[in-house]
Amino acid sequence: MSGKIYRIGDLARKAGVSIRTVRYYESIGLLQASFRSKGGQRYFDDKTLVVLRRIIELKNLDFSLDNIKSIVLMSREDEDGSKRRNELLHQYRNKLSLAIDKKLALEAQIDGFSWHIKQLESGIDFRECPGKDCKNCKFRDKCIFFSEQFD
Q1: Mind listing the pLDDT tens digit for each residue in 89-125?
Q2: How is residue 144 annotated by DSSP?
Q3: 1-62 maps to which CATH number?
Q4: DSSP state of 43
Q5: Helix axes 46-60, 65-75, angle to 10 degrees
Q6: 45-62 confidence digits (pLDDT tens)
Q7: Buried b (16+ CB within 10 A) or exposed e, 119-132
Q8: Ranges of each domain in the chain
């Protein structure tokens, strides 16, 4: 075994997670101790630290633990990394597509709030909406209350 060896607390500190998180990830098969002492103390190596940091990265990218587990388990039988690479590309593309959809929806919501604020700040008597002033209202293109009947 080459590289550094970490006790569970050191590993957790290096990765910026709690010891409880490391134990949980180990219990569900995401992490494996490199070895245990006769007293049962867990020891982890640099490779485990890399795996733990990858798990954290994927969680921050909104991957579920089930998705992460399938990728981690895949690494144990994927010597050249091609299966993991292809799976990650597939997952990243899906996540990107979902993020773009969320961004577009959020931008539409921001636009909606913005024009409502402008409308309320404009001094227009919104209690008269819809009404006779609709045809001249500068907000009529976005207003759901505008009706051609007021033209």
Answers
A1: 999 999 999 999 999 999 999 998 998 898 888 777 7
A2: T
A3: 1.10.1660.10
A4: E
A5: 150
A6: 999 999 999 999 999 999
A7: beeeeeeeeebeee
A8: 1-62, 119-150
| Residue partners of 62: CB distance under 8 A and separation at least 6 | 95
Q: In this structure, what token pair is assigned to residue 100?
A: 């773009």
Per-residue tokens: 17: 């997670």
Calpha distance 100→109 (Å, rounded): 14
Alpha helices of the chain — where are they, by DSSP H?
Answer: 8-15, 19-27, 46-60, 65-75, 82-121
Please name which of 49, 10, 125 lies closest in space to residue 134, comparing C-alpha atoms.
125
- Residue 144 structure tokens: 């759901």
The alpha carbon of 87 is separated from its chain's Cα centroid by a whole number of angstroms, namely 17
